Amino acid sequence: MRNAGGYAYTFDVGGIRQEADTFTCAHCNSIVIVKPKCDPCDLGGMCRLCDKMICATCVDLGRCDPMEKKLEREEARYRALRSYGM
Amino acid sequence: MANYSVTNGSTTGGGTQQNMATAYVGALIGLTCPSAAPRRFKIYDVLIGTNGTPADNFIEWDISRVTASSTTTIVTPMPLDQADAASLTVATVNSSTHGTITGNSNVFYVGVNQRASYRWVAAPGGELVAPATSSAGFQLRTRSGGYTGTATGTLHYQDQ
Q1: Which value does ipTM take for this structure?
Q2: In the list A28, A30, B3, B34, which could disulfide-bond B80, CB 3.0-4.6 Å?
Q3: What pTM was estimated for this model as a whole?
């Protein structure tokens, strides 16, 4: 795939190396391995709002909630709890 | 932003490698933010394999998010550039029990033959990112229905 988000290598029995492209879901951060000649629909899809590749699970959710926003929410909650002394 | 490497190899102070079971019981490697002044970190390279007697078994590898680290051997991650300062991220290895796993949070899951080794490396922007909150991070775990030996893992990550 073009602009892969990562690469996976298997050094198999007998020293045979197999490679596959991967991408990291922009919504949940999970790694999706792109199998050769795989149907694109099985991989997930492209979020039209954040314009990033997402996994099949996040496609089914049908909303755009980027990972960066999730991290910011979690960090804001953490900072708030610390400010309350919790 | 400095890069670091941590492995569960039998280095001094690295604890004892744990045998695999049919369920996830321990964790090969755990990376978590420190409780004081947490900082984000990004995992960009994962190398996994086994070091037992070769046989044909499947092994499942999993990286999940945690909200609390396991209580086990803490090691000092190796900076890839020796000029860099010590890592702020807490690294634990060879744990017999895993930490507090966040439900449905496995970001890496792959089944590999016991004889094979596997490597995943992220392109820039494709890393696994941990939030800058106390004790948040990732743990690398394994399980197998047939293999009961030990396994090896290496994680490369970047402190933010």
Answers
A1: 0.89
A2: B3
A3: 0.92
